[in-house]
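Figure 2 data, in text form.
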Amino acid sequence: MRFKPEQHFGMADRLSCQALDEPDSKKKTELEALAGVFRRLAVKAYMSTDPGMKRRDWSEFNVDATFAGLIDTPSPWDPLEEWEGYLADLESLPPSKQIRRLMEQAEEAIVRRKLGLL
């Protein structure tokens, strides 16, 4: 049985809400980590249906490099085109763990907009 990206995002959102209400910091961290897994599953599930989104080889992003400047992150309410431009700008930077996290967040925002969840 395959789940739809919307279902993965729904579970991620529920876990994040539970993490907000959790008084135990260890359990809160575990809930947020699990929510992150569901977000990545949602993005991967969507990528398999959209040929316009490319899959990445994240192995080259395991470098602890820093970079001189940072591209401003769009607002959560900015349009799809703004987020796609932001992702393209990130792709032009040298790979690092920090860039990978930013690219994953941008991909998530793009998929949510394409699904009409934002």
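Caption note: The mean pLDDT is 90.
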